[in-house]
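Lab notes, practical 5.
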Amino acid sequence: MNNPSKKKVASKSIIINELNVRSVDRGKKDIRIWKNALLEAESVINPNRARLYDIYEDALLDGHLTGIVSKRIDAVLNKDLFFENNGTVVPEMNALIKSAQFRKLIRTILETRLWGISGVEFHPGSAFHFDTIPRKHIKPELGIIAYNQSGNDGCTYEDISNIWVMGEHRDLGILLKCAPLCIYKRGGLSDWAEYIEIFGQPVRIVRYDSYDEQTRAELKNALDNTGSSLSIMIPKQADFEIKDGKQSNGNGELQMSFIKSLNDELSILILGNTDTTTSSNSSGYAQSRIHLEQQYEITKSDLAYVVTMLNSPQFKNILIGYGYPADFGQFVFSKDMDIEYLTQRIAIDNQLAQHISLPESYWLETYGINRV
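Output from the prediction step:
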């Protein structure tokens, strides 16, 4: 498989080992911090994405966002991928495509749309292997991999054959819009938890004669020893009233609807719909079908993006450097099979074939048939 006449993967030292990688900032985040991080990332003079990407890492701890991101990525990872030359599958590439490293590469390519940029460094040698470059160290505006996430001193990557940086220079990714929603959601969940803590248990109110200190002391001791529910002691002569808001929000529906709205916004940003992730009272088959088609459109866009990146000259040269026959041919995904649509389509095609001759390529393309 190795061809000595082909350009080999560069045998430079591993650049990732020279980076001063710092831990993710897990401090408290709010909208003001997100806005300042955005301004810093968009700076024309000295752009730096480090603080913004720390917020992205924090946002990805959200369970709903994690689920819908995985759903979008898995929709591509679960598709069959082939390397074809003139419509014929190249079997020498099958083992590579099915390897864990190649799946990891496809995942990294897809994550580029979430983060705006991604970078990988391929290891010299005969085996296909790479490490992902920490995104906070990639400075696409300067074309360098910075040694420190907040500095501009580093190595230029554009002329290094075994480093592949993906994404547009000014793109900050879809997570830019998801991050503030996750910040609001975390605050909403905190408010909800506080509401449950205060009003989830009954309030105990005891009254005593203002002059009877012994009774007051005995009542206080009894309350202290009978649980942690909210307790109030007031003299009988005092007028006391609790304004707890339970008449308008007796079951926490206010917080619940707020969090649901934020989850719906996240689903629309990542999947283009809500009904393929959560159900609603108004959803039916027709509406769910429309939402599913909307998600298919995003999946088709992701498939096209991945294929474009895999078929780029830079990545093909990397494969050639590892000895793979990537000179001629291209990566292609298997065609989506919508059985309901194809059942109608083939009936029309069979009638049409009785009157005109349909080329073999038409049947192969329309019904997703791969020639081996």
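Observations recorded by the TA: The longest helix spans residues 285-310. The CA atoms of residues 192 and 275 lie 25 Å apart.
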